[in-house]
């Protein structure tokens, strides 16, 4: 494992801890972890791609798992932050993989160097985890304000701002919800 794998693993653990009070956040962290493990393991364990290779390039597999995770998010999101935040990051990651695939198959646009391609995907994964972490922290802060009345009368504007951000973040979607119990 490289240093950036450890960095992403520690960020995933931090996102799990920060969002422990939101079960759906744990679900999305586990979904990203599964997609990441599948794509990285495939890239590391398959032989290099050549002209007569029977194995597809790693970008094909990464596109498949990123697109699958996006479809799961799109069809099962409960709050709007899931589709607009997490879904946007996953579709950007899948688009990056598609551009890399087009470069491999058609020769245009030119394929990115592996280091640049990997860096862009790692940044997308980190953004995904930071969104989950921010949602968890916002939930903790809102619960603490409500439970302990942390902000006095003179700071009600701040309490209203946090409460407004929380209610905007947890605005319900109108999509059918197969994962209701989460």
Describe the model.
This protein has 182 residues and is mainly alpha-helical. The protein has one domain. The chain is 74% helix and 0% strand. The protein has helices at residues 3-18, 23-45, 58-76, 80-106, 114-148, 156-169. The radius of gyration is 19 Å and the shape is elongated. The two termini are 33 Å apart.
Label this structure with key terms.
182 residues; 6 helices; mainly alpha; 0% strand
Note the topology.
Blueprint: H1 3-18, H2 23-45, H3 58-76, H4 80-106, H5 114-148, H6 156-169
Provide a brief overview of the structure.
This protein has 182 residues and is mostly helical. It is 74% helix and 0% strand. It has one domain (3-169).
- Portion in beta strands: under 5%
Average pLDDT across residues?
Answer: 86
Radius of gyration: 19 Å
How far apart, in Å, are the first and last alpha carbons? 33 Å
Query: In sequence order, what are the helices and strands, one letter per element?
Result: HHHHHH
Largest sheet: none
């Amino acid at each position: 494992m490289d240093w950036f794998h450890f960095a992403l693993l520690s960020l995933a653990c931090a996102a799990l801890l920060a969002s422990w009070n939101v079960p759906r956040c744990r679900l999305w962290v586990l979904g990203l972890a599964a997609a990441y493990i599948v794509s990285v393991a495939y890239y590391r364990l398959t032989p290099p791609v050549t002209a007569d290779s029977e194995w597809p390039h790693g970008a094909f597999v990464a596109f498949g798992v990123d697109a699958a995770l996006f479809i799961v998010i799109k069809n099962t999101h409960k709050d709007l932050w899931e589709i607009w935040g997490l879904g946007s990051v996953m579709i950007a990651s899948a688009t990056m993989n598609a551009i890399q695939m087009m470069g491999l198959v058609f020769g245009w646009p030119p394929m990115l160097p592996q280091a640049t391609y990997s860096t862009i995907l790692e940044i997308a994964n980190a953004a995904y985890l930071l969104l989950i972490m921010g949602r968890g922290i916002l939930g903790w802060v809102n619960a603490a304000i409500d439970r302990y009345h942390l902000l006095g009368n003179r700071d009600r504007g701040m309490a209203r701002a946090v409460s407004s951000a929380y209610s905007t973040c947890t605005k319900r979607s109108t999509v059918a919800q197969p994962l209701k119990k989460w």
